[in-house]
């Protein structure tokens, strides 16, 4: 696995709690910090409380879609919202969203997430 040059503070938004918790553990092993949220509202509350460098957002959440989370994070004050938004989904990028989602997210990762690819995304200059 690739290691990031600088630690990143990551917001994880996924209603599959086991998957979110495992992803948090893997990111912590790479010296990142991560906070798990399991609903869109929890994600919005966390983003209001803490500054994140990146957000990994599941596209299908129980309360409202991940695309809406991304839209709200993008519209948040520029200095408060994460600069990097990554869609995570069981579907491929073509299946998961349309042009609207592609414009909201910087990257799309299909589950199960390839940690090497995620590490490369997190280590890229922002």
UniProtKB/TrEMBL annotation:
UniProt keyword Nucleus, yes or no: no
InterPro entries in alphabetical order: Bact_response_regulator (IPR050595), CheY-like_superfamily (IPR011006), Sig_transdc_resp-reg_receiver (IPR001789)
Modified residues (4-aspartylphosphate): 58
Segments forming a coiled coil: none
GO biological process: phosphorelay signal transduction system
Domain Response regulatory stretches: 9-126
Keywords tagged on the record: Phosphoprotein
Xref: Gene3D superfamilies: 3.40.50.2300
Keyword Phosphoprotein attributed: yes
Name of the molecule in the record: Response regulator
């Amino acid at each position: 696995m690739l290691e990031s040059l600088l630690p990143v503070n990551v917001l994880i938004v996924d209603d599959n709690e086991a998957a979110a918790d495992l992803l948090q553990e893997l990111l912590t092993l790479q010296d990142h910090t991560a906070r798990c949220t399991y609903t869109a509202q929890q994600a919005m509350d966390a983003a209001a409380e803490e500054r994140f460098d990146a957000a990994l957002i599941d596209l299908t959440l129980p309360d409202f879609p991940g695309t809406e989370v991304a839209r709200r994070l993008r519209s948040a004050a520029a200095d408060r919202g994460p600069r990097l938004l990554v869609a995570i989904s069981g579907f491929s990028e073509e299946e998961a969203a349309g042009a609207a989602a592609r414009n909201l997210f910087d990257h799309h990762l299909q589950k199960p997430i390839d940690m090497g690819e995620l590490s490369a995304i997190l280590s890229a200059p922002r």
